[in-house]
Task: structure prediction
Amino acid sequence: MNTTIKLNSAEQLLCKLIASERHKTARSAGVKNSRVGDQSDEETDLEGVAAELAFAKFYSQYPTGVFDIGARSSKKGEDKTGDITINGFVIDVKATTYATGRLIAAEWKDHSYIDYYGLVVGTFPEYEVKGVMSTEELIQPERLKCLPRGRNKVYQATQSELTFPEELINKENQNVTHSV
Result:
């Protein structure tokens, strides 16, 4: 299965616009960026938007969450719809630029509305969808640890633990090549 996604020029432009608007809206509403790493807020927002679009493109789904530029705070319970819904399952897409990066979920977040967490690795505009893990499997006490350079504990899973569940795969699009 080809898991590599390269966003085309129109998608790249759209991601830049949406990331800029999300950044402005969130910061003006007082929502803090909960990034992990030393990259800028702008870079974090762009990578997040682009990873969400890459994930949706991989699954041949309309990227509804990508177009949301409203300020949503997970801490305030405003992020209950995740980033994308596939076959009725709500998915929160996580992005990292680290090739061996882990799927992580914040300890403080309300996980009750999310069915799966997905991991996308890469740097704008090229990504690889690494897979997903169910919330039930990810949010376990033994998975709560500090990242190597982190200060706060997060739930985490390695890429080798991630899967591509049949319930998320659209049989009609299973053999589609997604690279441009």
About this structure: The helical segments are 9-28, 41-58, 135-138. Residues 4-164 form one domain. The longest strand covers residues 126-134.
